[in-house]
Amino acid sequence: MLLQSIMKSKETAREMRYAKFLDGYSPVFSQFGENIYTSDVVQMCIDAIATECSKLTPKHIRTDNDNMQITVKGSLNRLFKFAPNELMTTRDFIEKIIWLLYMNYNCFIYPVYRIKYNEKNIGTKEYVAFYPLNPTGVTFLQDATGKLFTDMVFANGDKFTLAYSDIIHLRKKFSVNNIMGGGADGQPDNQALLKVLQINDTVLQGLEKAIKTSLSIRGILKINTMLDDEKQQAERQRFENAIASGKTGILPMDVKGEYIDLKVDPKLIDKETLEFLENKVLRYYGVSVPIISGDFTDEQYQAFYEKTLEPLIISLGQAFSKTIFTPREIDVGNEIAFYPQMLLFTNTKNKIAVADILGNRGALTNNELLQLFGYPPYEGGHVRNMSLNYIDVTLANDYQMKRAGTRRKEDNAGEEE
């Protein structure tokens, strides 16, 4: 694979030792836990979050001294627009990193770049690809200067040592551990959730067994004579044939056989208990039933966005910007922003409201307004139109003062007359 050859070329041959952290924990993190993901409720929750996040639009922007943002032309926006690597579209890429984040509570992304020199021999980074990584083990090392490295082991046995500053690291539930998300050992801390899932699984198994019991043994055929095994088998087959041919519901029997009916009355779990268990899992992930079913109101989606999606969007932008740009590049306004406009316009009513507010003020071009409603652009549609009912804030004071002066003159003229 291309990624394998690139990562091998980045390995360093310097002397390393385990990184030291103040909490005293060993900086070695083993295979991440996956046992909760056998639950269909858990998978539906993560899928709902990952699917919504896949609608985000990542962009490299720069904010100037006047607080104006511009989209920067370059390798980053070229990759973010359609395909961050040769295996994934942008939507696939974002969905993949959200799944990895929720499965492992940590997600590592490796940006591949080349140093490109201009005529003044000044080098700049030209990005080639972004790869989500799924290591089975991660060890943090330090060299003699204190620089931090990650020693990653993958499922096929490959091992790579990479500078931690070159890796985009997303974390979930970043709490007791100094560098990894999850619990103290850098793994998903799912103990509280596992208890609920185990109870839910026991309930579902009980339902399955109750249904099977109610549909299987319905009665006992008592044979009132002493028969050997072959004759018992023949008598049972004769009884089954009689059942199959009994179209009237009346089963003919002779004096040798007696059918004893079993009253099967399986006890099922009530609806409230099942909903209680499922809702505990849904609340754990910040997802509601209407979000999963797609039958949500604006208020329900807004709550889902603010509680669950917005923190992820902020984390994505900050983690990418921190790794991709140098402190100097950040100082002059460079950043990676994940725009959620595709998430916020959930229905036609909202789109009309946005078009009315932003379009009337000249904030959107005609083509951007068409794109909002799913229509293609047209030639010359880059123009901005605005309503004359609005005025530049810098001109409003002069306008009002002039109006006030005109009224005074009119009043004075009236008094003189």
TrEMBL record:
- InterPro entries, A to Z: Phage/GTA_portal
- Tell me the superkingdom of the source: Bacteria
Q: Matching Pfam families, A to Z?
A: Phage_portal
* Protein name, per record: Phage portal protein, HK97 family
Q: Which organism is it from?
A: Natronincola ferrireducens
Query: Lineage of the native species?
Result: Bacteria, Bacillati, Bacillota, Clostridia, Peptostreptococcales
